[in-house]
Amino acid sequence: MEFTPRRILDNALDAVGNTPLIRLDKIAAEHGLKCNLLGKLEFVSAGGSVKDRIAKAMVLAAEKEGKLIPGKSVVIEPTSGNTGIGLAMACAIKGYSVVITMPKKMSLEKEALLRALGAQVIRTPDEEPWDSPRSHIGVACKLQREIEHGIILDQYRNINNPLAHEYTTGPEIIASVVSTPSTRTRPSSMKVDAFVAGAGTGGTVTGVSRALKKTHNADCIVVGIDPIGSILALPNSLNIDGEGKPYVVEGIGYDFIPDVLSRDVPDVNHWVKTSDEDAFKAVQALMRKEGLLVGGSSGSALSGALAWFETEQGRKVAGTEGLNVVVLLPDGIRNYMSKEWFLKNAFQTEHSDLATRISGILAQEETVPVQKANL
Question: Is residue 277 a contact partner of residue 252, using CB atoms and an 8 Å limit?
């Protein structure tokens, strides 16, 4: 078997990013897509999500600017979890203390991982608006004021958030597409023709969009995905139905517009609203058809892409052989295995001939002795 040797890395931060782009051919075929449907698989990054990239970028930039003091600085960050995990990993390596504030709806697995990496974790009420002193953002600001050498790197306003994706995620996607030859059986435009990603802080969709449009394909269509209940989508009329409604999917959507998110054309050409139900169905499809153990927001991204394919613009792309549509899959199922939606998906029984056959076999009384040769 051929393999490409990799050099020894200095630490886990060197294993952030450089994630694979994978064909989602079975899902594409099921939905009658002629274009190439491709998934950018971020859970194989060292910390387990796309947020590793911005955590690394923000810490390194703060060190370079003299904002982090070895042995003294306490990094404080409000987060839905993945940025916190990335920061806790980076700070464990760098030697900084970490305090994470996180809404209660976020998974127990995220809290456990944060604590395992040495972070202090404070949970905040889900129902508090972002500007409440009791929200995860409000509590982080209070701690920053009171803790000596406390610093909030602030993923919502830190320019290194979108820059991390403009300089790494986007170029990686471009490199994967242009280095894969077009063949008779697998035609390719050799360009990224459309990019689909969920928006939380918005740094991912903004930064990748800029990389694609500035240096690669100015005509690339960028589709932002926003859960029902959030207010990030444009036009604002998209957000009226279900505004403020709680949603289960973690890591995307907000009740305010983060500074790092550019919602307008040309950065984001089209917005799609998605439901929890559609997201979790898409997660199940990614697992059972493509073997990808992704998290809920990956399902949002895929279900949003499939919904966009039903629009006039999307149908043209879906029906054209060789066009490349990249869907960003932000994290893996590791963070959600105790969640009700995942357990329902995992243990949901689907009728099959094999299951019927197994039940019939096990219902029979066994009279034949087990022979070693049969094992």
Answer: no
Count of beta carbons in the 10 Å neighbourhood of residue 186: 13
Give the SS3 label for residue 169.
Answer: helix
Q: What angle do CA 17, 345, 307 make, to 5 degrees?
A: 65
DSSP state of 366: P
The answer to whether 42 touches 50, Cβ cutoff 8 Å, is yes
5 falls in which pLDDT band (50, 70, 90)?
confident
Write out pLDDT tens, residues 75-132.
999 999 999 999 999 999 999 999 999 999 999 999 999 999 999 999 999 999 989 9
Beta-carbon contacts of 374 under 8 Å, excluding residues fewer than 6 positions away, are none
CA 33 to chain centre: 23
- 51 annotated active-site: yes
Report yes or no on whether pTM surpasses 0.85: yes
The Cα–Cα gap between 9 and 52 comes to 16
Torsion angle defined by CA atoms of residues 261, 267, 273 and 279, in that order, rounded to the nearest 10 degrees: -80
Task: Mark out the alpha helices in the chain (DSSP H runs).
Answer: 25-30, 51-64, 82-94, 108-116, 136-146, 160-164, 170-178, 203-215, 276-290, 296-308, 312-318, 340-347, 353-363
Q: Which two tokens stand for residue 177?
A: 């597409």
Strand order in 21-23's β-sheet? 21-23, 36-41, 324-329, 194-198, 221-227, 270-274
Query: Which among 34, 40, 51, 372 is annotated as catalytic?
Result: 51
Residue length of the chain: 375
